[in-house]
Description:
Blueprint: H1 11-15, E1 27-28, H2 31-42, E2 49-57, H3 63-73, E3 82-85, E4 91-94, E5 104-108, H4 115-124, E6 133-139, E7 145-153, H5 159-170, H6 192-209, H7 234-243, H8 248-267, E8 275-281, E9 295-301
Parallel strand pairs: 5-6
Antiparallel strand pairs: 1-4, 2-7, 3-4, 6-7, 8-9
Amino acid sequence: MSAPPTAPADPSAGSGRPKRSVPPPRHPTHAVDRAFLDLERRRPDVRWDAGGVAYLSGPPPSLTDLRAYVAFRLGELPLLTSRVTGGRRPGWQPSEDFPVDRHVYEVVADGPADWDRALHSALNAPFAPGAYWGVWLIHGHEPDAYALCYRFLHACQDGSAAAMTFRAMLGDGEPSARPLPGGSGVFGVPRRFGAAAALATRFLARTFAVRGHRPDPAFAPTGERRLWRGRVPVDTLRLIGAGRGGSAHDAHLAALAGALSVWAARSGVPLPRVTAVLPVDARRADEEQTWGNRCFALPVDL
């Protein structure tokens, strides 16, 4: 992937967009947003963030330039400047005075051998107080390559919104450029909602009927994150999936199941039954696409 475009020196002049004279409107929180906010307050010892890493080619930008670029892109993503306001009826209120420097950071690797340490630092760095997301510039392992790590708290975004945000932040397209779900004619809910709900119901029925499928209680997760990565062309996944009547996503899940099986054998942790929780986007076409939680979890046996 090539480097993102460079922001003009004067964003208001370069983009042709007038500066806002009034704050943007307040965006209501969803019930799932409020649930995650409550979980963060009740369980500060648990990590409620997720994210992704984009591997980019070309000389890495300076931290100052990256912060200026992100600030420029926030003009198209105003809800990223939000904070929670409203007490009993909380909402996301975009801020006119947003501290970009508390959301964009840099991790420098000391050569190729230090790459894993730098990536680990970005994946586990704490958020600034009051921040709901962050971007980490990771470089130093190669002269013409770098990475951007985008992480977010689940209270403000689900995976679909975060992916859309990251693509909008890195590219030239509008945030609504991705294909949006079509309505089913019933309250505008996407068609896949009903099918996914039926699958989830069948899964729950099987779960209640099965006993003894829990990991060894002697195994306690550490809470520390490690990233194990492998690069496979998307066309290869599509060919593998199509050859067995499936899709690239099916091939990806099959590879994950195989990796977990190998890990269980090596670590001595029995995994007689493994369930993946897949997010399904339930947004309507007229809903905000880059903020909030509008997904539900679909359990799938691997």
